[in-house]
């Protein structure tokens, strides 16, 4: 159903009638018939002219009314122009293949014939470069508005490559609420190598300034954070990082470049677990780094090859395919998750709902300022403890109890014992990652069915 939103009173530009009748009611009736939904009053910034035919009493009328358009986007930033066009065409030119294949072929060969010793045509060995991987890297860079794109065998593989930029004695600043695997990599893998990490609340920018040392090399943030969905001010953090000549990396997994563009907000690196929304089908594990800095790119390209953290050509082809529908999928995830969040917020057995699209979210205005919307992620606290959480999770029928997120299917998990079990108990307590905190990844099913499933599961606690 499409709702046309318009200001009252309507300004009628020209009317040609035989009899007046109840003109206002006729206008509303016809608009409802035309748009298939309720006409409701709302302020709008753009006025458009619309023509419609009415009953025999009104031959023709032209009315000027504000219509809520995609450009308004409910107060969020506009969706990036040309995004789907870039997703479908960037890096996909059939002219690059002798076969003129419209769909890029999957090149599985691990090695490539050379014209003469140390004189390859373009590729030498599959770890160093592969046509299927290069197609994907070029497409990803275009979508992020980056000069360079690099793909890795997983999201954590991408972060591991970043660690290769640093040495013993270097220091990392990391947001305190991040993916459990990121926390584990920094605290349990980087630390023995002599690379220290400070985990801080980045919603308070003064914490960053206090934590910066002469050996601080990079600031790592997720926004929205995982699993508490805190929204961090990328532009403000980037200004601090630039002042101190420190790299800023933003994990953009939860929103994708369709909804958030960290490089345009001042970040040096945009990092993704492509496993999630970018691929969107829960059948590939992969990561990526997108950036503009040529010097850092050269170092990462070396590390990609030297560390061997590369994805397979088949997996690259699958992600390249999935990008073609990314915009469509993210719009649906966004719409459905907000409806789910609103339902949960009104339910008496829910203690608190966290969704950046809700006005109740503490960084709601910041979210509107730096994103084009939110994805399918919803976090909430039920009233109760671990046993209540278990009963609720066991009663769900459409949401699969599983880790990960961003697929077409809806998933649900208990972060305290699943995705964030590797985070220390003390830190989980500080962050309020408790046993009654539930994380949803709202998929592409009919949203009414998803809400009904939550409703019946909540009835058992």
Main attributes?
disordered N terminus, 461 residues, amino-acid biosynthesis, Cys_met_metab_PP, cystathionine gamma-lyase, 5-stranded mixed sheet, Aspartate Aminotransferase, domain 1, PyrdxlP-dep_Trfase, 7-stranded mixed sheet, 3 domains
What topology does this entry show?
Blueprint lengths: L4 E2 L4 E7 L5 H13 L4 E2 L5 E6 L5 E9 L16 H7 L24 E3 L2 E2 L10 H14 L3 E5 L2 H9 L7 E5 L4 H11 L5 E5 L5 H6 L4 E7 L11 H10 L3 E5 L4 H4 L9 E5 L13 E5 L2 H14 L5 H10 L3 H20 L4 E5 L9 H7 L6 E6 L3 H10 L4 E2 L9 E3 L11 H7 L5 E5 L5 H12 L3
Parallel strand pairs: 1-3, 9-10, 9-11, 11-12, 12-13, 17-18
Antiparallel strand pairs: 2-5, 4-5, 6-7, 8-14, 13-14, 15-16, 16-19, 18-19
Helix pairs in contact: 2-3, 3-10, 4-5, 11-15
